[in-house]
Amino acid sequence: MLNEIYSECEKKMESSTTHMLRDFKTLRTGKVTVSVLDNVKIDYYGTMTSLDQVGSIIAVDATTIVVNPWEKNLLAAIDTAISKANVGATPNNDGEQIKLFFPAMTVEQRKESAKQMKGMGEDAKVSIRNDRKHANDKIKKLEKDKEITADESKAAQDAIQKITDKYSANIEQILKDKEAEILKV
Asked: What CA–CA distances, in Å, run from 59 to 11, 83, 99, 100?
């Protein structure tokens, strides 16, 4: 019974970490990646569709992304969607494809990206603390219902805290590494 609580807690904490890493992909670092366009959606025959479903997206170098739509009539819609998304570059439509030329990041932009990254990390830590609270609440309920003893409850809560500490330290290390990557010129 307690092992189920431990494994469920660990799965949720792992999910929080994965979610944070997925959010990091939307941040801009020194080298531009196609993931900056992950949140861009266009109206494709009445359905909001992500950009990678209507064309190919390629980072041709450290500062340029090229979007080649599979249907040329979508160029205007893609152009508009990218402009509205405010990804940090103005789309250049040449009638065949859209090119995005990202300027080199300034120190202020790097600091802003690092600040956003820290906010995402804090959200992940809050999520992990909530997961710990839910697990401890389940353990306390088992103790209250006399399914486990007070000593078992204390040991179980200590085990949950060790899992929490492990994931918190993991997030701290990821944040430290990511910040170094963002601030590196």
From this structure: 34, 18, 10, 9
